[in-house]
């Protein structure tokens, strides 16, 4: 029987079916701001699943999910879930639940040591130590946050959508802002990675995930691979342990 996997992030909420064999074909994405009891029920109408696993970083929306699925087996991911790794952290209860799921999939798929970079509203770096534990990470602004901040905090700068550029010298305001956003953001990611890898030592696998991963990774050869389904795969692994004792 399939499980319903839900990645409830700040911008978008992903829904996916999965079972013990892997992620299944059915999936859906809804803007998180549009989540209501009615919209969720409409979205899943006709689906057949035996349990629900949720990774949420938006508490008020997770309350809606709990209400919708109050009569079904339901597991909200926390640091006490069967994740498949330990913690070398001061306060694991403070870690975002999406990052917990990322590391569960990262360890099984790519081994240790490794780093998951989730390119979303924020850019999060999550590290698996050589011993296979969640060792910590970094939280930084996402690319959209950088462009949105300039637009809101200045009188004349426009809002821009990050795009690839052909010259490092902008000839107009839009080009200059796009270069600043894209090159600046990739430079931030590169420097964080450089310091992390230097501290960990040895060969490190770096995996990118999240909505902005494909675009960001184009200019970051430090990234080993893009795995868009990393969070959902982590949720699937936890679902197997929670509901089937795998």
Give a structural overview:
By secondary structure, this protein is an alpha/beta fold. It has one domain (3-141, 184-243): Nucleotidyltransferase, domain 5 (2-Layer Sandwich), CATH 3.30.420. The protein has 7 helices and 10 strands. The protein has helices spanning 37-44, 59-68, 97-110, 143-153, 173-200, 213-217, 230-243, and strands spanning 3-8, 12-19, 22-31, 52-56, 74-76, 114-119, 122-128, 134-141, 205-209, 225-226. The model has no long low-confidence stretch (mean pLDDT 92).
Structural class: alpha/beta
Q: What's the name of the CATH homologous superfamily?
A: ATPase, nucleotide binding domain
**How do the helices and strands follow one another from N- to C-terminus?**
EEEHEHEHEEEHHEHEH
Give the radius of gyration: 19 Å
Average pLDDT level: 92
Count of distinct structural domains: 1
The proportion of strand residues reads 15-25%
Oligomer category: single chain
Strand order of the largest sheet: 3-2-1-4-5
Helix coverage percent: 25-40%
Could you name the ranges where pLDDT drops below 50 across 5 or more consecutive residues? none
Q: What is the global morphology?
A: globular
What's the story with the biggest beta sheet? 5 strands, mixed
Helix count from the secondary structure assignment: 7
């Amino acid at each position: 029987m399939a499980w319903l996997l839900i990645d409830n992030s700040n911008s978008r909420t992903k829904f996916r079916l999965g079972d013990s064999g892997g992620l299944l074909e059915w999936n859906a994405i809804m803007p998180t701001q549009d989540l209501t009891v009615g919209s969720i029920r409409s979205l899943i109408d006709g689906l057949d699943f035996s349990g629900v696993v949720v990774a949420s970083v938006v508490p008020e929306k997770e309350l809606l999910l709990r209400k919708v699925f109050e009569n079904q087996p339901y597991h909200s991911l926390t640091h006490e879930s069967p994740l498949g790794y330990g913690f070398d952290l001061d306060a694991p209860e403070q870690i975002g639940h999406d990052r917990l799921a990322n590391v569960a999939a990262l360890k099984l798929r790519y081994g240790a040591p490794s780093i998951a970079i989730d390119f979303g509203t924020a850019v999060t770096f999550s590290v698996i130590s050589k011993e296979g534990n969640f060792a910590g990470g970094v939280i930084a602004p996402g690319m959209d946050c950088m462009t949105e901040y300039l637009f809101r905090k200045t009188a004349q700068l426009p809002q821009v959508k990050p795009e690839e550029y052909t010259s490092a010298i902008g000839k107009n305001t839009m080009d200059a802002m796009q270069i600043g956003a894209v090159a600046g953001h990739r430079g931030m990611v590169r420097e964080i990675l450089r310091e992390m890898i230097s501290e960990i030592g040895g060969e490190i696998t770096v995996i990118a995930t999240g909505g902005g991963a494909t675009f960001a990774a184009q200019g970051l050869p430090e990234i080993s691979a893009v795995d868009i389904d990393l969070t959902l795969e982590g949720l699937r692994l936890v679902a197997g342990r929670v509901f089937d004792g795998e």
